[in-house]
Amino acid sequence: MPTHSSTPVKDTAPPKHAQLRETLRHQIETLPPDQKIPSEHELCAQHGVSRITVRKALADLVHEGLLYAVQGKGTFVAPRKFRIEWAQEMAGFHADMARRGLAVKVRVLEQAIVPATQRVAEELNLQRGDPVVKIVRLRLVDEQPFDIATNYTPWVAFPGLEKEDLTRGSIYTLIRTKYNVQIDHGVRLVEAVACPPDDARLLHVRAGAPLLLIHNTMCDVHDRPMEYSIIKRRGDRAQIEIAVVTANTPL
Asked: In three state form, how does the secondary structure of 71-107 look?
C-alpha cells in the first residue's frame, strides 16, 4: 500500500510579542491618560513571557502613539487622539467637540485691538495697520491642553468683540448671534512643525514636539473674509480625517 507524505502544517499563531501587544492594547483602552502601566519585570511575571518579548510589545505601542516612555520613571498611557473631520469642524471647534460628548475649557491669553500685520491684512482683505481684533486662546479637551488658537477679525465688522467673554463658547456662534454674520466657507492650510519652547510650556509637551499648524481664512455668504486664524495643535492628540471622492472623468 503506497504511503503519502504529508506537508507539515505551519504554526499560524502570531508571535508572542504580537499577542502581548494586542492584550496590552485592550487594557490601555480602559486606562486614563498618563496612567503608569506595570514595569517590564511585572509584565514578564503577569504574562509569563521574556523581557525581550515585553520590550518589543511596548516598543510597538509607543510607535503607534498609545504609550510614551519617560526615562527613569516608566511607561505611561498616551493622551487620547481626537479625530477632526474638516467638514464637521466648519461648524466650529466647540460644536464639533460637543457632538462627541467631550468637555472643552478655554483660557483666554490675549484679547485686544491691534494693527493688522501684512499677512493678516492680506488674508482679511484689509490695509496693513487697519484695526483687527486679536484673540489668543489655550483650548483644553478632557482637561488636557489641545491647541493654541489665534484669531483675527476685522474690528470694523465686529466692534466690541475684544470685550466679549470667550471662555464659554465659540467665536463663530457669537458673531452669528450678535453680529448676524454667518461663516459660510473658507480655505485651510495644514503643515507639520516643531513646537517652540513658549508654546511647549502651554501645551505641556517638550520643545520640538510635533504640532499641526493650521491656517484658516473663513468667509461669509458674500465671500468676504471675516476671520483668519492660526492654530497650533498637539500632534499627539489629533488625527485629521478628510473625505475624498473620485473625479467623474476617465484617467
From this structure: CCCEEEECCCCEEEEHHHHCCCHHHHHHHCCCCEEEE
Contact 102, 88 (CB under 8 A): no
Q: Are the beta carbons of 155 and 132 closer than 8 angstroms?
A: yes
Q: Record the cell numbers describing residue 229, joined without a space.
A: 486664524
Beta bridge partners of 203: none
Number of domains in the chain: 2
Q: Is residue 248 part of a domain?
A: no
Cell of 69: 516612555
Query: 103 with 32, same domain?
Result: no
What's the angle, vertex CA 173, arms to CA 172 and CA 176, rounded to 5? 85
Give 61's DSSP letter.
Answer: H
pTM of the predicted model as reported, rounded to 2 decimal places? 0.68
Three-class SS of residue 197? helix
pLDDT along the chain (251 residues), means of 10: 50 81 89 89 93 92 84 86 58 69 88 96 96 96 92 97 90 92 90 92 92 94 95 86 65 47
Query: Could you say which of 32, 57, 77 is where a domain stops?
Result: 77
The 183-194 sheet, strands edge to edge: 104-115, 131-141, 144-154, 225-234, 210-220, 183-194
| CA dist., res. 234 & res. 144, Å (int) | 10
> Is there a single domain that holds both residue 130 and residue 236?
yes
Q: At what angle do helices 40-47 and 16-28 cross, to 10 degrees?
A: 110
DSSP state of 36: B
pLDDT at position 241: 73
**Secondary structure (3-state) at 208:** coil
